Known about the structure:
The chain is mainly alpha-helical. It is 38% helix and 7% strand. The chain has helices at 8-11, 47-61, 63-72, 86-93, 97-102, 120-129; strands at 17-18, 35-36, 110-112, 115-117. The strands form two sheets. The protein has a two-stranded antiparallel sheet. The longest helix has 15 residues, at 47-61.
Amino acid sequence: MDHPFVPARWLDDRRPRIQPANGEAPRLGRVMASVAHPDAGTTPFGPSELQGLAAVLSLLGRVSDFEALIDKLPTSPRDNRLHIGYTEAAERLNIPEKWLRERISTLPHRKFGKFVQFAEEDLRAISEMHLVKPVTEK
């Protein structure tokens, strides 16, 4: 039987051998007591290890539930600063800081003496200034 997530061709001879802890031949309908790599000896799992394995498999089976749970987690609190400097502005715009510094005279920004700062509106305006729309042929 193929693994539900891994194609059989990837497993080749690396499939684990399943053997009950008491040494009997495996039978359907019984809980497996150990799983071992073909090259390794049998190592019996206790009830707590089996419960952990069952929990992991259950979580893997409910990936969409897990993603939904992550979406419900509270996000980090927003930064309350009104203005940010070159470094963070460049990071938020996903551009090199040098690019901002070289073109500052043509970009919207705030200036407090010699200090250049950017507000949220400035970043949006910079982004809009460089919007390229595709040309549609008629």
